């Protein structure tokens, strides 16, 4: 228990699995918090927690590893979970609510970055930017025997259907309006402060859109929200962009639709079973794939760290949290 | 009008070719094995030339076609046409402005996003099966980056409007200041390059703008700076650009045009901070058709003695 004696004046923060770049938290904030690093212990997790974490009030999530009843039951003093992610699908929110555990996330800190990548993916799919880059870098342009790249599709005037008009969806809408696109949306509830046409049915939205951009979170209600019917309604020229969570789309159906030409193309940053990506997609030129990096810029990761630490500091000072997740 | 002979200089659009063949007596320059062969058979019958960014109408061609009345370019750029000679000889010239403005601006934005967020590199990373071995590195935030535009005409303005929606402060260098915009004007290109993070070339190619992006400008833009070119390859001193990128003196580049198309410096092929496209800025189905329609309409107007739609000379 030597560690406990040395750091006993610092508030304890449990870390079961470290977030990416945890070393920066360690180097910048170990004078403010004592990080209890469960993954470094040779003890099995249950034992580590019952030995060292009975009095822990705050926890820093990795942003990915599940925080559910089977973990929470070992943390009787827990009052706060801070996740450096915007997404909350890895946390059992109702279990936290039941136990009186507050949850704080990254708020809207990452919204611009995620919107930027959504737009970047859409332009890439429609104008074949990655196809072009591959073509030129393989030396095919100067080659006398290769075919030119097929023509792309004009972005201006396209009807964009945004799924989820929260912070990210709003940033996507603002950007695409500047390209001359028309915006409609589906959301849990209509948002009267926005004049974009609202569709209560995702199927109807898909029927009336040239491209769908998924900007919502993953929940029981949005799991496989984009199913085969929705994809077929989107149609042979339709494009789907996903910067939400992989499981919002029925991935198997989407892959089949893409392979068979039932939809026109896809730009995907997230997948059902990361880091595994269906190999059938690798052969397709109408698909652009990025490895869940929409929120991963230097600037935003630093902001997420600062916000996470800000939430922890506020908690230990008995002040209001900076970005508490409230029930809707 | 099928007694009127029209020369098409290079393959540019199947749709345009069909339209020309249906309306006129179409002669295709690239089907002749040599220039002399071509000139021997056709010089005296050709009354119109349809050119593009590859082959336009230079002095040699114009001089060899005594009956030439009009050059209708399948492009907005006029750098491949000897405008002075056309003016001297009373030959009309038309181009395809406006219809391609949005598409070219979209590619400029697409290149900015692709370079800063490493979209193409990420796609490569996933397709090579590297993701299970570890995450892709962090990239740089695009929103809010200072964007500097060289040339604030139709295309430059369309780029500015789009970049503004990302919270990017806009500055520009142009032949003359445009007080009707809110953008910050720099009267020389070095000051523009010093004061922006992404420099976009969107002006026309003329004698004055040849190699306007030289070593000095590249150095001013610097090791964190990104250069985007959707103008003409000769706007940039290409060897200087290549060495700046190889030596890390420039942060990245997104290029749709090159000095000697279709040749592209091979040293660029392995660079992850560089995105290359084969001059496809206006290549969408919609715009290609609109450009072709404009070429046809201009030719028909001329031969029906009606006002030209988009005359340059």
Automatic annotation (TrEMBL), chain A:
Pfam families: 2-Hacid_dh, 2-Hacid_dh_C. Gene3D superfamilies: NAD(P)-binding Rossmann-like Domain (3.40.50.720). Its EC number is 1.1.1.79. It comes from the Eukaryota. Transmembrane segments: none annotated. InterPro entries: D-isomer_2-hydroxyacid_DH, D-isomer_2_OHA_DH_cat_dom, D-isomer_DH_NAD-bd, NAD(P)-bd_dom_sf. Residues 48-325 form the D-isomer specific 2-hydroxyacid dehydrogenase catalytic domain. One of its GO terms (biological process) is photorespiration. One of its GO terms (molecular function) is NAD binding. One of its GO terms (cellular component) is cytosol. It is an enzyme of class 1 (oxidoreductase). Residues 119-294 form the D-isomer specific 2-hydroxyacid dehydrogenase NAD-binding domain. Keywords: NAD, NADP, Oxidoreductase. The keyword NAD applies. Belongs to the D-isomer specific 2-hydroxyacid dehydrogenase family. This is glyoxylate reductase (NADP(+)).
UniProtKB/TrEMBL annotation, chain B:
GO terms for cellular component: cytosol. Keywords: NAD, NADP, Oxidoreductase. Its EC number is 1.1.1.79. It comes from the Eukaryota. Signal peptide: none annotated. Pfam families: 2-Hacid_dh, 2-Hacid_dh_C. Residues 6-312 form the D-isomer specific 2-hydroxyacid dehydrogenase catalytic domain. The keyword ATP-binding does not apply. Belongs to the D-isomer specific 2-hydroxyacid dehydrogenase family. This is glyoxylate reductase (NADP(+)). It comes from Quercus lobata.
């Amino acid at each position: 228990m030597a560690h406990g004696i040395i750091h006993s004046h610092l508030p304890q923060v449990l870390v079961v699995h470290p977030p990416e770049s945890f070393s920066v938290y360690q180097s910048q904030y170990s004078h403010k918090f004592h990080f209890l690093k469960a993954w470094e212990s040779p003890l099995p997790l249950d034992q580590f927690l019952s030995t060292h974490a009975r009095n822990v009030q705050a926890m820093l999530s990795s942003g990915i590893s599940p925080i559910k009843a089977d973990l929470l039951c070992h943390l009787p003093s827990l009052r706060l979970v801070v996740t450096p992610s915007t997404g909350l699908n890895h946390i059992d929110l109702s279990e936290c609510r039941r136990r009186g555990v507050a949850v704080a996330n990254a708020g809207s800190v990452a919204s611009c970055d995620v919107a930027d990548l959504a737009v970047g993916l859409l332009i890439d799919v429609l104008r074949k930017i990655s196809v072009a880059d591959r073509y030129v870098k393989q030396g095919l342009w100067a080659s006398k025997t290769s075919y030119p790249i097929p023509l792309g599709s004009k972005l201006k005037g396209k009807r964009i259907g945004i799924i989820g008009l929260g912070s990210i969806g709003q940033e996507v809408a603002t950007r695409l309006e500047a390209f001359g696109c028309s915006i409609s949306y589906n959301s849990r509830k209509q948002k009267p402060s926005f004049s974009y046409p609202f569709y209560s049915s995702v199927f109807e939205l898909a029927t009336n859109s040239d491209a769908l951009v998924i900007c919502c979170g993953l929940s029981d209600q949005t799991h496989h929200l984009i199913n085969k019917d929705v994809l077929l309604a989107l149609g042979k020229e339709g494009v789907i962009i996903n910067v939400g969570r992989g499981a919002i789309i029925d991935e198997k159906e989407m892959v089949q639709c893409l392979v068979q030409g039932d939809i026109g193309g896809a730009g995907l940053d997230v997948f059902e079973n990361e880091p595994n990506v269906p190999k059938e997609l690798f052969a397709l030129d109408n698909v652009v794939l990025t490895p869940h990096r929409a929120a991963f810029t230097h600037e935003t990761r630093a902001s997420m760290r600062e916000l996470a630490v800000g939430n922890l500091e506020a908690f230990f000072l008995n002040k209001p949290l900076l970005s508490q997740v409230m029930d809707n | 009008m099928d007694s009127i002979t029209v020369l098409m200089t290079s393959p540019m659009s199947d749709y345009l070719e069909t339209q020309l063949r249906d309306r006129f007596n179409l002669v295709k320059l690239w089907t002749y094995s040599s220039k002399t062969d071509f000139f021997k058979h056709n010089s005296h019958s050709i009354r119109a030339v349809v050119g593009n960014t590859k082959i336009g109408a230079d002095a040699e061609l114009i001089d060899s076609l005594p009956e030439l009345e009009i050059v209708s370019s399948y492009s907005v750029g006029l750098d491949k046409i000897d405008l002075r000679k056309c003016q001297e000889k009373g030959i009309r010239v038309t181009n395809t402005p406006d219809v391609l403005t949005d598409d070219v601006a979209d590619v400029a934005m697409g290149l900015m996003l692709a370079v800063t967020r490493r979209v193409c590199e990420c796609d490569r990373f996933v397709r090579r099966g590297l993701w299970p071995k570890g995450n892709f590195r962090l990239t740089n935030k695009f929103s809010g980056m200072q964007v500097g535009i060289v040339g604030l005409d139709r295309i430059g303005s369309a780029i500015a409007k789009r970049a503004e929606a990302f919270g990017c402060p806009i500055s520009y260098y142009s032949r003359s200041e445009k007080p009707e915009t809110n953008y910050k004007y720099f009267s020389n290109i070095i000051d523009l390059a010093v004061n922006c993070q992404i420099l976009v070339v969107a002006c026309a190619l003329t004698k004055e703008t040849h190699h306007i992006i030289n070593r000095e400008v590249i150095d001013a833009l610097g090791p964190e700076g990104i250069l985007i070119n959707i103008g003409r390859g000769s706007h940039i001193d290409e060897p200087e650009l290549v060495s700046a990128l190889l030596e890390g003196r420039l942060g990245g580049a997104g290029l749709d045009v090159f000095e000697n198309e279709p040749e592209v410096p091979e040293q660029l092929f392995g660079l992850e901070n560089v995105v290359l496209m084969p001059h496809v800025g206006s290549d969408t189905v919609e715009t290609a058709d609109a450009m072709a329609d404009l070429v046809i309409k201009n030719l028909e107007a001329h031969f029906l003695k009606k006002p030209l739609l988009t005359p340059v000379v």
